């Protein structure tokens, strides 16, 4: 089955600087890669996703890049703010003719923004 | 608000007992997924239902079972509870009305504590 590795497990960044979180996946058939943000005690919240036919996607201060050949994808947060502090999870999934399949999650990155 | 409703929010019970967790998906979503998140752990896929039928199983224990009803709400039944079953249980839903991947949106979870 799919295996997703995520690094680093913890990341501290000065406010205003950029943060980068990296994930690798094992199943070359995976074609959908969402990122979730989870604040303490709250639900995982989808912040951005990318499909395998796209190499990069941006949404304001957040961007995701995908390298299918190397089977890795990354989350980039620019101009970090205190409210960006949370645990971030990457995930991978295969679509089918019938829609979604399960998400396989990475182990999470605890991001701390230092004021 | 993700539109996915989970009840109850908290559940405290004893070892050996049985509990039922309930999930109502977003309006129009056909797929429901159950995930387990233990303390300081990532998100582990348990089971997926699509339009009333089981579609995929993850590492779900035999003591656990689930079903999806005609109105598309789902229930996760946990029996013969053990201390190690203490965790956050999340439900997610997605439309799955065609091929390919569609985003999964999570409910607020049920925190299960086994005493």
What composes the largest sheet of chain A?
6 strands, mixed
| Largest sheet geometry of chain B | 7 strands, mixed
Which chains share the greatest interface? A-B, 28 and 31 residues
H/I helix tally of chain A: 0
Whole-angstrom Rg of chain B? 13 Å
Overview of this structure, please?
The complex is a heterodimer of chains A (115) and B (115). In chain A, the strands form two sheets. In chain A, strands 2, 4, 5, 9, 10 and 11 form a six-stranded mixed sheet that branches. A five-stranded antiparallel sheet of chain A has the order 1-3-8-7-6, with no helix packed on it. Helix content of chain A is 0%, strand content 53%. Chain A contains no helices and eleven strands. Chain A starts with a strand and ends with a strand. Chain A is an all-beta fold and 115 residues long. With 115 residues, chain B is an all-beta fold. In chain B, 0% of the residues lie in helices and 50% in strands. Chain B has strands at residues 5-7, 10-13, 19-24, 31-37, 43-50, 53-57, 64-68, 74-78, 87-94, 105-106, 110-114. In chain B, a hairpin with a 2-residue loop joins strand 5 and strand 6 (53-57). The radius of gyration of chain B is 13 Å and the shape is globular.
